[in-house]
């Protein structure tokens, strides 16, 4: 597809995707409402990066045109594909009612939640209503893939030579560059999936091994590590369900190879680097401080396991959210943007402390009705993915069979990390995530030979 033949929709999608891809590397995360991290940004009372401003404008204008135009022409609004309509409608109704409650009660976090939860979430409803070519889908997915390759390369540079990177190139804070590595996870999963489905190639093998090395360097980034291994688990399960002997054999080899490579890499690196990794792992995963060697970790682990909460207080946080949500009788008790009464022995009393769990977050901010609908929607999505993808025979000349498995596995990883980290709120990741979900949902009916019902 040549540039001059692009439709307006394709052109807008390419533009915003390109800006979001750039800001994965240039400004991985906007840490707070009043800042945009680095230049460039757009100051309108508060500051927005160019990418976030474009995504927000896209949601308002295109969303208004899609929903308003369809409602005007047919008197109906297409909120989701067939099979998802009832649950999605229930979820959306609950969110809208909770938004209204938040407006009436002037919830302190309402504006932030609209910016970080409502606007990115609306991308799903827009993407499933837009019509674009297979080649457009593929090129945007590949754009995210190459963004991931770049993030992996930058991960090495940032770790070993941070001073060599211009200070305004991207955020180097703990919560900054880490977000960019989600794109690296996608690239690694994409390469691993092609290894399983298409067989060995040096390119894909090098990408997977390189990604493992980068993730080992950034082992303190628990969300990235968790997302990667859940995604690998999803693609491995899909491979095993395919029952194709060559794919199943490669999947079994992958299960053995990945941990073996990590163990080998750990024992061959210099002692100083090994001790640094042990110290990071001990604190981030086991909450054990002042560990400087593997021997000290082994000595202190048993006693620390009895004293420390390895969930970092998450179980107490989730309990607080679920308990506060009960008073809403199915809706948000304090409206969208309320401040839950959170208390944990680790953090103390901290109203409004992040939920670190998508279901707990929805239970309090949108109500139990929305939370239950979300769980059922995710369950139905997983059922369709693991049912249709393993034995798929469909191929349109653009996506390979492995590509949809890679997309599905990455989406599963992002959904899973939301169960321990909270809902997806970064607009760059949300753009590619919801686009991937829309691509997959479009395929379920195609893979089974059904016709999509409007």
- Rg for CA atoms: 22 Å
Q: If strands are numbered along the chain, what order do they take across the biggest sheet?
A: 1-2
Q: How many structural domains?
A: 1
Helices and strands, in N-to-C order? Answer: HEEHHHHHHHHHHHEEHHHH
SS-derived structural category: mainly alpha
Compute the number of helices: 16
Number of strands: 4
Which percent range fits the helix content? 55-70%
Compute the separation of the termini in Å.
28 Å
Poorly predicted runs of 5 or more residues: 28-39, 450-454
Mean pLDDT: 80
Strand content: under 5%
The gross shape turns out to be globular
Largest sheet, described in full?
A: 2 strands, antiparallel
What features would you describe in this structure?
This protein is mainly alpha-helical and 454 residues long. The chain has one domain. 67% of the residues lie in helices and 3% in strands. It is built from 16 helices and four strands. It has helices at residues 8-26, 50-74, 85-105, 110-127, 134-160, 177-198, 202-217, 222-242, 245-268, 271-286, 294-307, 314-325, 358-365, 368-388, 401-421, 427-447, and strands at 41-44, 46-49, 343-344, 348-349. Helix 10 (271-286) runs parallel beside helix 11. The radius of gyration is 22 Å and the shape is globular. Residues 28-39 and 450-454 have low confidence and may be disordered.
Summarize the structure.
By secondary structure, this protein is mostly helical.
Name its key features.
16 helices
How are the elements arranged and paired?
Blueprint: H1 8-26, E1 41-44, E2 46-49, H2 50-74, H3 85-105, H4 110-127, H5 134-160, H6 177-198, H7 202-217, H8 222-242, H9 245-268, H10 271-286, H11 294-307, H12 314-325, E3 343-344, E4 348-349, H13 358-365, H14 368-388, H15 401-421, H16 427-447
